[in-house]
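Dear colleague,

Following up on yesterday's call, I've attached the two folding results inline so they're easy to grep. Please treat them as preliminary; we haven't cross-checked anything against experimental data yet. The first protein's sequence and structure tokens come first.
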Amino acid sequence: MTSVDTRNPLFWMTSPGNTPKGERRDFYRPEETGWTDWLMPGTRYKLLYCNLVSGAFSILLQVDPNIEATSHWHVGNLQVYILEGGFHYYDGTVTIDGKTIEDKGTPHSFTVETAGTVHQPFSTETGCLMLAVFDGPIGGYTDDGTLAVMADARLHYYMARDNDAVHNTQLVDYSYGSTELQ
């Protein structure tokens, strides 16, 4: 039997071939999936991508007008791209070099809510529709500061599954495709 030297960088630069397509769709339109109630009143989501191995997940999040979110903690980074409406933190302003300016998310705005952040966003009078890409869970607090929920990828998957809204979710759980290194 011939041994292969996997320590040689040229081994890893040789294509093993394309991954078989299988029976999974590569593209779908989110309107094909129903909304699932999210973690607080006036919010709902569509689970687009869910990695049960790494804990990352992506959702379309719809927030009704004038919703004050509960205080929450980002365990991982959250990337947000606003599609419609908007939201803000605190009073929606920031002071830079002594000058106070508006600092509100509007359509086509992008922000990163970094890991470790604890805050309380507010939706605008038009509400908000955003693409939210989570690197990890989000912890929700009660009004008295007690941790009420740790909403990870698995919880989002179970909530959407119980609402029959995961048939188009791009799911990574190592039950699809190869589980072995090639």
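Below is the second protein, in the same order (sequence, then structure):
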Amino acid sequence: MSKENLKHIFLYDKKLWRMNLPNIVVTYRIKNEERWIEKSLESVLDICSEVVILDDGSTDDTLSICKKFPKVVDIHHQEGLPLDEIRDRNKLLKMALKRNPDYVFSIDGDEILAPNSKEILSEELDILYPDSKIFEFQFLYFWDELNKIRYDGLYGKTWQPRLLKIDSNSSKLSIKKSNYSGNLHCGSIPINPKLSEKSIRSNVKIFHYGNFDNNTRQKKFEFYNKHDPNSVEQDGYIHMISEKGKHSGPSGIEFITLPDFMRRKL
């Protein structure tokens, strides 16, 4: 049977499609994400079988929101620990591997999958790239409005590996130390250098709301400068709050408008 015929079956035979849906465990590392976490969880329910969460001391309603979802099967809550992203990410990986998944998908509490992600991702995993180990996703950074995306500089070219296929060697993987204080920017999934060049760029988009308004952007700017002061590589993180810096575009801040068919109701 040709790939086109398989695609036709995938799209229109829902019963067969459900049978072929792989076992995906979604992981979250979160703190005080009550603003977006409910919509984030709702967006991943269609693609996953279970969700595991590491909560790093939330003081708002984040945990109570998460506990409302039956697919959230494991929550590790910690308080008062020094910042260490690698410690937390590797803890999450172990939590996910205990669920015996086919894939592990990492997402943050201020991120939401674009519409039709289920159909797109299932086709990629079941039909187009069933043997691929790593999938990267493009990020769309929402800015001030629910249909306005910042697209200059790094904001228009950010792709991150977030989906890992699990095999017999996966238990040996771990996320490696970064060059930043608190292991900031360490990545969300463990990457084998031999496989990173073979990663697939998914057509699924991740909507990122962590820079949505001035207040959120200022808090993030202060957080990173507290833990990574005078960063040359990140140019002081000035791009987070302005059009300045080497990570902004040469013409300043630029925006595109999200098409209506891609919008989610928030």
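For the second protein, one point worth flagging: The two ends are 41 Å apart (CA to CA).

Best wishes,
A.L.
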